[in-house]
Automatic annotation (TrEMBL):
Transmembrane segments: none
Alphabetical keyword list: Amino-acid biosynthesis, Glutamate biosynthesis, Oxidoreductase
Organism lineage string: Bacteria, Bacillati, Actinomycetota, Actinomycetes, Kitasatosporales
Gene3D superfamilies in the record: Alpha-helical ferredoxin (1.10.1060.10), FAD/NAD(P)-binding domain (3.50.50.60)
PROSITE patterns: 4FE4S_FER_2
Superkingdom assignment: Bacteria
Originating organism: Streptomyces evansiae
UniProt pathway: Amino-acid biosynthesis
Protein name according to UniProt: Glutamate synthase subunit beta
Xref: InterPro entries: 4Fe4S_Fe-S-bd, DPD_II, FAD/NAD-bd_sf, FAD/NAD-binding_dom, Glut_synth_ssu1, Glutamate_Synthase, Helical_ferredxn
4Fe-4S ferredoxin-type domain mapped to chain residues: 38-69
Length: 487
């Protein structure tokens, strides 16, 4: 145990963010560089080393949180990094992007603020990179087996790294021009600078993983031919079909999916554009959807110089604290969250349903009409007399995703079965109905969190390794049927 009295003598202290006026002028990460190291050992000392560490259950990766908290408290950064990497291929991604279900399950959180697990995690891995403790793990011998991984998001990269380290020859196919999937083009730079992806890719290349960008399996490369070329295939193509909003005026110019809007600003940071072809500069922006993707649109619009930013959420505003009856510990609660993007300004409207869009004579969107909604007999119903309109010159739809892309031919060419939710069906080993073809991440689970994606990639890798060799010592932290602990 780090400090037997740590949780009694120290309060929760999180990473400091840069001033709003400063950070909206650039695209760098919002946190003050180096602000965690002076406080992280004290924060790690708040870990209680519980007899039953529920944080393990909260995190699908099964991260060894009390162990690396203890090492961080003692400032044994090498040992802490080793324990961190034992369960997580990419802690610098999760430490920045994960909503931290481990903290919701922290036993200290029953009657205090939980341990800053996420901040400790990112401090450990950043220190490990700085000190050279992150090195390629090259397999001692090759198996002679080949594996294709379709998709380079967190699930695909985790599966590829595990299988490469097991001695298989792995090639990752990515339809975009750069590796990273939504980590690259869906997450704004101010949440995670892409240098973190780049150095992981270089580590994986040094280990032997091959990368093929600009290749969309199904369109550019026939899936059946790919299957014949490799001994096994892992589909980690994500759930990229955006949920639409079929209301009058949807076809007006200026209404875009979030995943049409966000990647362009990331391409500016990559040097592909001087300015985004789809910019919020000087415009009244409305973001429909109250989740993390919506918040990413809000922060992006601020940095592009929007005249105003309004975010709409159809559900009621959640509470600021956990309700012990409706959302008891250790479930993951739905709480009112103020992200760094929300700190930067804009308006948030809850219980708001969009009725229609209004445009000008040139077909450009100019106003969004909304009304308050409420639950009546379990159904969302519009409240009479609450209709109004707000300025809207750029609208982004950030309402989640409905399943994996079927328009490119990948599902049909492989001959894959789908489940009732439109995801690719798989068995307990993550194998589809086609022998030797496996699925990991959102393509099989549906839209989920980055920790679940990495856990799926690691688990699917074990299924592939067993298929190729007859047995496997690779870890499998989850089953395909596992779900988050919720009410």
């Amino acid at each position: 145990m780090a400090d037997p009295k740590g949780f009694l003598t120290h309060g929760r202290e999180v990473a400091r963010t840069r001033p709003v006026a400063e950070r909206v002028q650039d695209w760098n990460e919002v946190y003050v560089p180096g602000s965690l190291l002076p406080i992280v050992s004290t924060q790690a000392s708040r870990c209680m080393d519980c007899g039953i560490p529920f944080c393990h259950q909260g995190c699908p990766l099964g991260n060894l949180i009390p162990e690396w908290n203890d090492y961080a408290y003692r400032e044994d950064w090498s040992a802490a990094a080793e324990r961190l990497h034992a369960t997580n291929n990419f802690p610098e991604f999760t430490g920045r992007l994960c909503p931290a279900p481990c903290e919701s399950a922290c036993v200290l959180g029953i009657n205090q603020q939980p341990v800053t697990i996420k901040n400790v995690e990112v401090s450990i891995i950043d220190k490990a990179w700085d000190t050279g403790d992150v090195a390629p793990s090259i397999p001692e011998r090759l198996s002679g087996k080949t594996v294709a991984v379709i998709g380079s998001g967190p699930a695909g990269l985790a599966a590829a790294q595990q299988l490469t380290r097991a001695g298989h020859t792995v090639a990752v196919y990515e339809r975009a021009d750069r590796i990273g999937g939504l980590l690259r083009y869906g997450i704004p730079e101010f949440k995670m600078e892409k240098r973190h992806i780049n150095r992981r890719i270089e580590q994986m290349r040094a280990e032997g993983t091959k990368f093929r960008t600009g290749v969309e399996v199904g369109r550019d490369l026939d899936a059946a031919k790919l299957r014949r070329r490799y001994d096994a295939v892992v589909i980690a193509a994500g759930a990229t079909v955006s949920r639409d909003l079929p209301v009058p005026g949807r076809d007006l110019k200026g209404i875009h999916y979030a995943m049409e809007y966000l990647p362009l600003s990331n391409k500016v940071q990559e040097g592909d554009y001087v300015a985004s072809p789809l910019s919020a500069e000087g415009k009244h922006v409305v973001v429909i959807g109250g989740g993390d993707t919506g918040a990413d649109c809000v922060g992006t619009a601020h940095r592009q110089g929007a005249a105003s930013v309004t975010q709409l959420e159809i559900m009621p505003q959640p509470g600021a604290e956990r309700d012990p009856l409706s959302q008891p510990w250790p479930t993951f609660p739905m709480l009112y969250k103020v992200t760094s993007a929300h700190e930067e300004g804009g308006e948030r409207i809850y219980s708001a349903g969009t009725t229609h869009f209004e445009g000008d004579e040139d077909g450009n969107v100019r106003f969004l009409h909304l009304a308050e909604v409420e639950f009546v007999d379990g159904k969302l119903t519009q409240k009479p007399g609450t209709e109004r309109r707000i300025p809207a010159e750029l609208v982004t739809l950030a309402m989640g995703f409905t399943g994996t892309d079927q328009s490119n031919g990948l599902v049909e060419q492989f001959g894959l079965d789908l489940d009732a939710r439109g995801n690719i069906a798989r068995d307990e080993h993550f194998e589809t109905n086609v022998p030797g073809v496996f699925v990991a991440g959102d393509a099989g689970r549906g839209q989920s969190l980055i920790v679940w994606a990495i856990a799926e990639g690691r688990s699917a890798a074990r299924g592939v390794d067993s298929y190729l060799t007859g047995a496997s010592s690779l870890p499998a932290p989850i089953r395909p049927t596992d779900r988050s602990l919720t009410v």
